[in-house]
TrEMBL record, chain A:
GO terms for molecular function: peptide transmembrane transporter activity. The keyword Signal applies. It comes from Agromyces bauzanensis. One of its GO terms (cellular component) is periplasmic space. InterPro entries: Peptide/Ni-bd, SBP_5, SBP_5_dom. Residues 1-27 form the signal peptide. This is ABC transporter substrate-binding protein. GO terms for biological process: peptide transport. Residues 83-460 form the Solute-binding protein family domain. The lineage of its organism: Bacteria, Bacillati, Actinomycetota, Actinomycetes, Micrococcales. Keywords: Signal. PROSITE patterns: PROKAR_LIPOPROTEIN. Pfam families: SBP_bac_5.
Automatic annotation (TrEMBL), chain B:
InterPro entries: BPD_transp_1_N, MetI-like, MetI-like_sf. Keywords: Cell membrane, Membrane, Transmembrane, Transmembrane helix, Transport. It comes from Agromyces bauzanensis. The keyword Nucleus does not apply. This is Peptide ABC transporter. One of its GO terms (biological process) is transmembrane transport. The gene is dppB. The chain crosses the membrane at residues 12-30, 101-120, 132-155, 233-255, 275-301.
């Protein structure tokens, strides 16, 4: 019998993650918590949560920051994205399809209710049920019994064994399932939530390192005050007295507050500070790749981008883009040129996957490939790249268009769409008639999360309608592997296919860019660009 | 007088109805599906999108949506934001802040703008007049965000006289800097208007009469000249009060004021129709009320003005 303990795999992952990161983190602090816990409250910036603070309905950063700090899931991610048990005692599987999850005894929510197997099962069932229309419902789609077509109150794949044990059966083997469990959608909920879920979203009760500073701690559009949860007894024990999250609509205001000393830690930077923050906050800033990337998606249904001609043209475009120059000039080094379809902070990342040469800037190769494509069918018209004009995109889009114009000798231009909503609507209904910008922010630190949802046949976010049986087979093979590590090879082979077909052209990884004041120490930013607030200390 | 007020209030009803209809239509006509945008770069499952559309009545035709909205308003229900907060609560939190900001800014405008304009008018062609002209020209030519960033950097970050952004509950002392910045936008107009009006009034017969009656300059200037010069200025201030409320979007962003401008901006970006419509409706209401008050103020400033029965 082969029983695998998740903890062992996690240690191996931690090591792998640390190795990949060591090349690019220079400014991050080395020690944590040596000064002992302080009682000073840390202030930081965020944005008004877009939705009620219900874990399964929180899918954006404003709410995510709060939910991640007031709830403790089965596992949590450390700075490198390695997974460690938090509420879970053990997560075991024999076949990567049925998982037996045991949770630690004597854990409580801040209202005194115990954290039990039911707390997880009920929360997941709520999150998955169609009638509840939760924004993160797709996280549960691999659990047996999940349905998009009818309302399922209780998924057949979830079974409570006893107070502290439950079983999860997936509809197919997925070795990276345990990696996902640190995502906020998988948090447990107390029974108090079911009395009035709307009211709960306004004053959530969790089991995490922090909790709301009383009823109404969420002063909308102003701030959310969190205090230390005295009953929290897990690996993320806060080294400070609490967290005041100030909500900004404008990052420039937040940056001014950091300069003025009203904010301790800034987790995002305004465009205007990108060129200067590293000198202004020398030794107190971070600029390293995060689990997010930017790509250009070119659907095969567009003229000239199907079949062999399409492959040649995509490769030519990729070769014609000077990623180094754009990341330096436009982004002041706060983006890192892409070497693959995932991100350097993900365990298993490799920057020399066969075929990744297509990402190198090479004008001659670009011209040559374009000419070969023209031999199949001559190019006509203009290459348009759609982007949403309400975000900071115009700069890089125009730069890419200019490079294509100069290096390929074709007409190329940006095609601004006024709002993000409009762009996404056109992409979703497939009414868009040009290539468009896309991006992916990892939900959990796993290679497959950057590949399966975007490039799998009929996958949820497959905006370019890419379909490759070979790719799908390799992904299933990787997900069905004995464990995450064993799956890595298949995922990288799947990427080789992507490099050949280029359904999307990788541009760059988004960097975590943040800065902090002199008064705080032990500031470390996680794989997902968010600081690990619990370990920050502040001199009083 | 009472009849006049009643008539004005009744007139406001069709204006309000028309405004909500127009705003609702404009927000509705915005391309792009706010529900799809809720999912960010991820493509949502269509079934979940359908559920959400139904919940926010987005699946119904425009006129049905508008009637539902209107019906709810008469029942005192302004709808809820995506974050589940009643729009009425958001209104109650943000309007007082912006009103205070606009009032403080108007106060600075009145004291600064009218004061400088009066002195310029009384000593026209002098050194003070010339320098006031230069200063107000500088203010009028600088976009407000430049003034805001410079003021924030110099007075808050470098000198530390003010807090860089507005703190919890938006206390008055934190609002001083943003209010001053807002005031600079209309400073030049107020100064020039007051100056011109003062010069004109000074040449009027009643001023000369007052002087020949032997009244002191200290009485003539405030009572006879200033009071009679204020009508165009006050009209401008009323129009400007509305501009201040709307123009606060930029300033509120830079100083992180939890007010109307910031909230509406965010709601537009997120496509939260009920929030946008409710806020704009209340803005229109305030605009109407302020203009009514100003019209009534005319009679106080100039007793010759009478309201038709």
């Amino acid at each position: 019998m082969k029983i695998k303990r998740f903890g062992v795999a996690a240690i191996a992952l931690a090591a792998a993650g640390a190795l990949t990161l060591s090349g690019c983190t220079s400014g991050s602090p080395e020690s944590t918590g040596e000064a002992g816990a302080s009682t000073a409250v840390i202030t930081t910036n965020s944005t008004e949560p877009q939705n009620p603070l219900i874990p399964t309905n929180t899918n954006e950063v404003g709410g995510g920051l709060i939910v991640d700090n007031i709830f403790a899931g089965l596992v949590y991610y450390d700075a490198e994205g390695a997974v460690h048990n938090e509420v879970a005692e053990s997560i075991e599987t024999e076949d990567s399809q049925t998982y037996t999850i045991k949770i630690k005894p004597d854990q409580t929510f801040t209202n005194g209710e115990p954290v039990t197997a039911e707390s997880f099962v009920n929360a997941w069932n709520y999150g998955a049920a169609l009638d509840n229309a939760q924004l993160s419902s797709y996280f549960f789609e691999s659990i047996e019994g999940f349905s998009y077509d009818e309302n399922v109150e209780e998924m057949s794949g979830l079974t409570v064994v006893d107070d502290l044990t439950f079983e999860v059966k997936l509809s197919q083997p997925e070795s990276d399932f345990p990696l996902r469990l640190g995502y906020s959608a998988f948090a447990p909920l107390p029974d108090a939530a079911w009395e009035d879920i709307e009211a709960f979203g306004e004053n959530p009760i969790g089991n995490g390192p922090y909790m709301f500073d009383g009823e109404g701690a969420w002063a909308h559009n102003e701030r959310i005050d969190l205090v230390v949860n005295p009953d929290y007894d897990g690996p993320r024990a806060p080294q400070n007295g609490g967290l005041d999250v100030i909500l900004y609509a404008d990052l420039d205001a937040a940056y001014a507050d950091l300069q003025g000393g009203n904010v301790d830690v800034l987790q995002d930077l305004p465009e205007s500070a990108l060129a200067t923050f590293e000198t202004e906050f020398e030794g107190r800033s971070v600029n390293q790749p995060a689990a997010a990337n930017a790509t250009i998606t070119i659907p095969a249904r567009l003229p000239h981008f199907d079949g062999d001609e399409g492959k040649l043209r995509r490769a030519a475009i990729s070769h014609a883009i000077n990623r180094e120059e754009i990341t330096e000039v436009i982004y002041s080094g706060t983006r890192t040129p892409a070497k693959d379809f995932t991100s350097p902070v993900i365990a298993g990342y490799s920057e020399d996957i066969p075929g990744s040469e297509v990402l190198e800037f090479d004008v001659d190769a670009a011209k040559d490939l374009w000419a070969q494509a023209d031999a199949i069918a001559p190019w006509d018209g203009s290459f348009q790249l759609a982007y949403n004009a309400d975000g900071p995109n115009q700069g890089w889009v125009d730069a890419v268009a200019n490079q294509l114009k100069n290096n390929l000798g074709i007409e190329a231009a940006g095609a601004p769409v006024p709002t993000f909503a409009e762009l996404r609507t056109a992409v979703t209904d497939r009414t868009i008639q040009t290539p468009f910008r896309t991006g992916w922010q990892g939900d959990y630190p796993s290679l497959s999360n950057f590949l399966a949802p975007i490039f799998g046949t009929d996958a949820g976010s497959n905006d370019g309608d890419y379909s490759s049986p070979e790719f799908d087979a390799l992904m299933s093979e990787g997900l069905g592997a004995a464990d995450v590590e064993a799956g890595i090879e298949s995922f990288q082979q799947a990427q080789e296919i992507l490099f050949e077909d280029l359904p999307a052209i990788p541009l760059w990884y988004t960097n975590t860019a943040g800065a902090w004041g002199e008064q705080v120490e032990n500031v470390e930013f996680g794989w997902n660009t968010v600081p690990l607030y619990h370990q920050i200390t502040k001199s009083e | 007088m009472a009849g006049y007020i009643v008539r004005r209030v009744l007139q406001a009803i069709p204006v309000l109805l028309g405004t909500t209809f127009l705003i609702y239509f404009m927000v509705f006509a915005l391309p792009g599906d706010p529900v799809v945008a809720l999912f960010g770069e991820k493509t949502p499952p269509p079934q979940v999108v359908e559920q959400l559309r139904e919940r926010y009545n987005l699946d119904k035709p425009f006129i049905v949506q508008y009637l539902i909205f209107l019906g709810n308003i008469f029942r005192g229900d302004l709808g809820v934001s995506f974050s589940g907060q009643p729009v009425a609560d958001i209104l109650a939190q943000t309007f007082p802040v912006t009103l205070r900001l606009a009032a403080l800014s108007t106060f600075f405008l009145m004291v600064g703008g009218i004061g400088v304009g009066l002195i310029s008018g009384l000593r026209k062609g002098g050194v003070f007049d010339a320098s006031a002209l230069v200063v107000s020209l500088i203010f009028i030519s600088l976009p407000i965000f430049v003034v805001a960033f410079v003021a924030q950097y110099v007075f808050a970050i470098q000198l530390g006289w003010f807090r860089t952004t507005v703190g919890v509950g938006a206390p008055w002392q934190d609002l001083i800097l943003p209010a001053l910045v807002l005031a600079t936008a209309s400073f030049a107009q107020i100064v020039r208007l007051t100056r011109a009006s003062v010069i004109e009034t000074e040449g009027q017969d009643f001023v000369r009469t007052a002087a020949s009656k032997g009244l002191s300059r200290n009485r003539i200037v405030p009572v006879h000249i200033l009071r009679n010069s204020l009508i165009p200025v006050v009209t401008y201030l009323a129009v400007d009060f509305g501009t201040l409320m709307v123009g606060a979007v930029v300033t509120e962003g830079i100083f992180n004021v939890p007010g109307v401008g910031r909230t509406v901006y965010q709601a537009i970006i997120r496509g939260e129709n009920p929030t946008v419509v409710a806020f704009v409706t209340v803005m229109v209401l305030i605009y109407l009320v302020v203009n009514l008050l100003i019209d009534l103020l005319y009679a106080v400033l100039d007793p010759r003005i009478r309201y038709a029965k």
